[in-house]
Amino acid sequence: MIKTEQLSKSYGQFVAAEDISFEVQPGEVFGLLGPNGAGKSTTINCISGLLKPSLGEVSINGYSVLSEAVKAKQSLGLVPQDLAIYEDLTGQENLNFWGQAYGLSGRQLKDRMSTVLQQVGLESRAADLVSTYSGGMKRRLNFACAILHEPRALLLDEPTVGVDPQSREHLLSAVENLKSTGTAVLYTTHYMEEAERLCDRLAIIDHGKIIASGTLAELRSHMGEKDLITLQGDFSQVSEQVLSDFEVIEWQDDSIRFMAADAASLLSDILSRFGKGQVKQTAVQQANLESLFIKLTGRELRD
Ligand SMILES: Nc1ncnc2c1ncn2[C@@H]1O[C@H](COP(=O)(O)OP(=O)(O)OP(=O)(O)O)[C@@H](O)[C@H]1O
C-alpha cells in the first residue's frame, strides 16, 4: 500500500535520506524509529509528495506519487509533525473544513466527524475553539482531521511528541483501531516503547540510512540474547584488556558499554576487575530496541 524504492533526498551536498526502501501492507503498522535529525520527516514528506525525492520511487496503492499524484493522494492521510489545524476555529469547524477539502459533505461528513471525534476522545470539546485546547488535544484533532476521509494509507510523523499520557493513549489506541480495520500505517517515532507496542515491522534509521529492519523479534535477535551493560565512573587509567572477553561497544574515560549474556550473574565478577571506586554506577538493559540502537550506533536513541 505504501512503497518506497531506493528513495534519497539531498539538500545541496547534505544527504538527509539515502537509499530508503520498504513496503507497508494493508493492516500493518510499519515503524521508522530513529533519533532527532535521523531523516524520518524527510522520508515521510517525500512519501506524501510535500518534498520531491532526489532519487528513487514512491507509490501509494500502486500509484506513483511523482507521476500519478492525484490518484496516489486519494488513498493517503497525513498527520504532520507541525499541526495543520486552525486555532481560531472550533474542533468541529476544523473537521468540517478538512472534510470538505477531502470532498466529503452532508450526512457522510457529519457521520465521519462524529466517528473520528469519538475515536480521539474529543466529543465533549468539539464545539470549543482550538485555541482553548491543550497541546495533546490539538494533536488528537490533527490526527482526526487526517483520517476523516478513511485513507487506506496513513503517515504519522511523531504524533505523540510532547503530549500528556491521556492524549498519548487516545492516539495509540486510535492507531491500533485503524490497523484492525486494514489501514496501512507508517509511524515515525523516537520513542522505543511506542515502536514496541504498535509496530509489526520496523526500520531503524540513523543519519538518513536504514541500519536495521525486521519484526521486533528479528531485531531483538540481532542482540543475540545478550544484555547491554553500561558502567559509569573513571576509566581513564583502565586498560581495555580488562573486558577483553566481552563485546565492547563504547569505551570512554567516564563510561563503558559492552554486551554480555546473563549480565546479572556476571556483575560481581565484572566489578571485581576494576579498582576500588572506579565504577560509580552500573546499568543493565535487556535486549530491546534501545539497546539494539546503542549496539548499532554507539549512541542513545534520544540523543
Ligand atoms: N530544508 C532543509 N535544508 C537543509 N537540511 C535539512 C532541511 N530539512 C531537514 N534538513 C536536515 O536533514 C536531516 C534530517 O531531518 P529530518 O527532519 O528528516 O529528521 P527527523 O528524523 O524527522 O528528526 P526530527 O524528529 O528532529 O524532525 C537533519 O539533519 C535536518 O537538519
From TrEMBL:
Alphabetical keyword list: ATP-binding, Nucleotide-binding
GO molecular function: ATP binding
Protein name, as recorded: ABC transporter ATP-binding protein
Coiled coil regions in record: none
SMART domains for the chain: AAA
Family annotation (SUPFAM superfamilies): P-loop containing nucleoside triphosphate hydrolases
Domain named ABC transporter: residues: 2-232
